[in-house]
Amino acid sequence: VDGIVTDSTLGLNGGTIKAGTLDATLTFTPPILTAVLVDTTAPTVSISAPSASSTSTGPITYTVTYADGAFSASTLAVGNVTLNKTGTADGTVAVTGSGTTRTVTISSITGTGTLGITLAAGTASDVAGNTAPASSASGTFTVAAPAAPTVTAISPPSGSTAGGTSVTITGTGF
Asked: How far does CA 60 lie from the centroid of its chain?
């Protein structure tokens, strides 16, 4: 088997090798291969649902999890994350975490539409050198326009004001 080294000797199973009139005697004991592991399975990558189904400003997070019994490392960085956008929705991506778990955070969210993420191939590897494939698209969340402010009171309620008079407006969403 190509690439497997054995300390056993090589035999011809009753055959001979001749060079002119000389015979060579070889013996081969097959190696025990039960402890040999050939790993051709790439790490898998999964992306959680977004931390909220809608927002007007964020932040929203996704948990990225790699799985492989022989996991070695993840190199997931901002440049490996594609922000899937509809409408005018947009945001800023950050990546944190270690080991088999990373958190992708989308902040400074603006516009309206939906946002989700996709990860590039090769963002994790196992000890055999197999690399993770590109992810499927994550679930999305809705980016809604911020609510309009609501005025609940103005003080003074009416009349003219002289220089230096303060007007107080109270409400929500300012």
From this structure: 15
